[in-house]
Amino acid sequence: MQIEILGCESFGARSLACVVKTDDRTILIDPGVALARLRSGLLPHPIEVAAAFRIREKVLSAFGQATDVVISHFHGDHMPMRLKIRISCRWKLSLRLTG
Prior knowledge:
Layout: E1 2-5, E2 18-21, E3 26-29, H1 46-63, E4 68-70
Parallel strand pairs: 3-4
Antiparallel strand pairs: 1-2, 2-3
């Protein structure tokens, strides 16, 4: 099994995106990235914005290879909330809400 961290706080933007690869599955987990808007009354720093774009590109690339997508909960740093993209995938998206 391989685990690749695509984004996290220490990478410069809010995210917990990762990919878990096994012999027959590629699981994309929490494919979101967010910025802390107006934290302490300040806009995100340009370095944070750049980090968010880098993470976003990694996440978008991972969608094309994923056999499964897991979203742990509905926050912007765990799922793409306002992202309009078209993805050509070999699987159908099914959504199961639990909890």
